[in-house]
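hi! just following up on the protien thing from before. the input was this:
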Amino acid sequence: MRYNEKELLLLAKQPAEKAAELFMKGYKKGDVPKKRLMKLVVNFLFYFRVDEEEPVGALLLEQCKIAREDNMSNAFSIAFVEEPEKKYIFECENKEQCDEWIDALTKASYEFMRKSLIFYRTEIQEMTGKDPLEQYGISDETRFRVGTRSDT
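and the predicted 3d structure came back as:
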């Protein structure tokens, strides 16, 4: 996927939905955990060296699996569907902080928001008999319909 570097840097400077210093281990063999400032902005997880203002990198939280690490109660991982062997591991201060990060990262993806919109659209439609998206002129768009993409 291609990105405009300047726009990505501007996004990284926006207020974060969640931010903290965590230990991050990359997917390469021999990588060691490094303390990084993690910043969740929309559906990007930016990581910074603790003493720097520009991000070292960013992970787009789409088509990925976020899970607790089996052998550590205070760690979670992010692995991408197309490259499951490239797993990033993040170590938190405690289990509670880890749970908060897993929850926030899971809810940050476009796909999660889309599924939530479809769920609430259906609920409102059943309660009122009206399509809540109709007033915005987007009720016929396939991206807002059940049964498209991966709604299972």
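Residues 70 and 112 are 24 Å apart (CA to CA).
The longest helix spans residues 110-128.
cheers
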